[in-house]
Write a structure and sequence with these properties.
By secondary structure, this protein is mainly α. Among the domains are: 103 residues, no CATH class; 151 residues, no CATH class. Helix content is 47%, strand content 9%. It contains 14 helices and eleven strands. It has a three-stranded antiparallel sheet with strand order 2-1-3. Strand 5 and strand 6 form a beta hairpin. Helix 5 runs antiparallel to helix 8. The longest helix is centred in the last third of the chain and has 22 residues. It starts with a strand and ends with a helix.
Length: 378
Amino acid sequence: MPTTAYSTHFARELDVEQLAALLRGTQPSDLKSDADVEPHWRDWIRSDVQCSSCGKFGAQIVRAAKAQGTLKSIRQAHFRFVGQDGIDAHHPCCEFYGDDSAAAPQTDSLVDLGSAKTQETRQIRELVCKGIEQKIFDQPTIRAMRQWFFDRKATSRFRVTASSEAIDWVWRLQSHPSYRRWPFHAVHAELPAFDWEQATIHQFTEENLALIELVRGAPYGADHRRKAHAFANKYRDQEMFNVTTLKPYYEAALALCTFIAKNTGIKFGKTKPEDYRFKGAPTHLLALCALLLFVSSWDTNAAIAKFAKLCAAPAPTDASLGNVVGLNPFHDYASWQLVILSGEVAAKSSNGFDYLAQLEGIQTLLREQHRLWKIDNS
C-alpha cells in the first residue's frame, strides 16, 4: 500500500493529496479516489506515476476511509498499481506486491528525509536541503538510485529455507565465546574447584568451531533477529531477493556513516558509531550516505568531500526542499542476511539446533571421560 509514488512529470515523490494539489489547476476534483478523476486524467496518472520501489507504472488512487460513527481513520489515501489485465502491476519481489489493499502502509524502506520530529532528523533535513540547494543531488537522482538498487537486487534470488529454530541456533552460536579455547583433558577435573560448566562451553566451541567462525561478524541485534523470524515464517520456501549482492555497497555506506559520525561532531542518534556494524546505523544517516556514495560513483573520498561541502554550506534558504521521501536501499539488509546465513548454517549443523541439549550431552560425555580416566589411572 504505497502512500507515496514518484511522478515523472513533476519529478517528485508525492502522496495523493500533494498530487491533487499540483493537478488542481486543471483538475477541479479533490482527487480523493480514482472514481473522482476524469478518464483522461486516470490514463495520465497510470502512465506518469511510478511505484517508488520497483518503478512499475499503472497507478490508481484509493480514497482514505474512516470508520462509521467514530470517524476514526482506518485507511490512508494511497496508490494502487494495477496492470491492464487487472493483476497487481508491482514486480513480484517488490515490497508492495500483494499489499495494495493492506490496512497500513509498509514504509520501512522509505525514509522521510524531510522529517523534523527529532534533533537528529532535523539535522538530516537541513543537510538534505543544502544538498539540493547546492545541486549535489535532487529528487530525480533519488528516484534513479532507488531503481538502480532494485535492479541490482533483482539479479540474484535465493530460496528461504531457514526456520525460526535455525535463526535461534545462529543467535546462540553468535553469542558463544570463541576467543578462549581450552580443549578438555580428564586430568583437568582433578583440580579441587574444576568448573564443569565452563569446560562444557569450551568443548562446545571445539566441536562447533567451523559454525562459530561462519557466523562471526553477522548482525546480532534483537530487532534483526525478530524480523528474521518474521521473514522466515512468512516467506518459507519462497524465492526472494538475495540482498547479500548489495554487500560491497552496504559495507561502503556503513563505513561512511561511521566515519562521518566520528568526524563531523554531529550526533546522529544514541548508537555509538563503532557499534553501527553490529547494531545498524541510523536509518536517515544511512540513506543520506548511500545517496552521497551513489552520486559519487561509490568513491568514498568523493562522498566525504560532498559531505564536507554540506557541512560548510550556509543554512538553506528554502526549508521545503527537504520535503523528500528518500530510500534506505539497505532496508532490512541485516535481517535478510541473518535469514540467508541461518539457512546455510542449518545445512551444516549435523547435530540439530538444541543448544542446551547439546551442552548437556557434552557435559555427560566429559564426566564419563573423567570417570574412565580415573579407573585407568587408579
